[in-house]
Design brief:
The protein contains 10 helices and 13 strands. With 320 residues, it is an alpha+beta fold. It folds into 2 domains: 53 residues, no CATH class; 216 residues, Restriction Endonuclease, CATH 3.40.91. The chain has a 5-stranded mixed β-sheet, sandwiched between helices. Strands 1-2 form a two-stranded antiparallel sheet. Strands 3-4 form a two-stranded antiparallel ribbon. The longest helix has 17 residues.
Length: 320
Amino acid sequence: MYGLKDLKSKIEIDANSVECPVKGCSFKVVRQRKTFKREQKYQCCTHKIYISPSTFAYETEKENLLWHDSSDKQLFEEIKKVKRESRIARDNSEDALTWNVMRFLDRQGLVTDFLSKLSNKKINESELILWSYSPKEKSSWTLLNKAREEFGEIIRRGSEPDIIVKTDKVLYFIEAKLNANNKSKPSNPKNRKQYETGGNNMFRQIFRSDYETVVIKDRRYELMRFWLLGNWIAHQLKVDFEFYNLVPSSREKDIESGFGKHIIQTEKSKFFRLTWEKIYDYIRVLEDDIEKQKIIEYFENKTIGYNNRGNIIKAFDIAK
């Protein structure tokens, strides 16, 4: 895995070629345009990465993952059976970031402690559900599938929160972002499914703004769906609901007010912005061990590619 310490701070890009971003390598590949492709003409013959002007991808997904012992491999393969899309081999993959960070917390038995501190509530039991896969059920989480159907979604193409944590007191939905923003819209704006009518007209109970304003005008389609489905599931479980937008500290600074103006929040149902740097700060003060050292170095060296001038972009605002 390559990070700040391994990569050039600036790469040469011209009309026809891009140089390998790894320090000390002078190899150049044909310049990619538009869609990222994994073809030999775009691959460094030494480092085996596929290169574009803005990012690169590893030859295998494993190279972008910190945790891949037998239990990790088994879980990862099971997740891939239900997860709709994966670009985990990409350097700027938010899925790889999500796996590396959340699996660290899970492997260390820290999920409940982190959430307890985050919510200021004593969480005793938790199940981490990544990309809808429930380890306890060994399949796509049943309640999420019921929520999808309740609001008119097709299960195999339904809403897929990056991170769900089912606990004894709170249902957590966490939508993770790295490069992407929160703007999204439906592929077919005329097909509103049952978002406005499902759950005994739950939309009216938890939104201040109408569907047109939230989804079409403000392009909060993804956030709308997670707020709706999460509230419905929490109601079935009889627990509180907390929905977090997990982002780098430099991004989406106004998302709490930007999305918050559309929704009705109560003591039992809240929306928050959470930063990756806050998770880093939580990990940083833990007792030292090998796995902690790995994840700390990962955070501190994480990149999200190169800008249009060929300068490297550091992922997080972290001072070593």
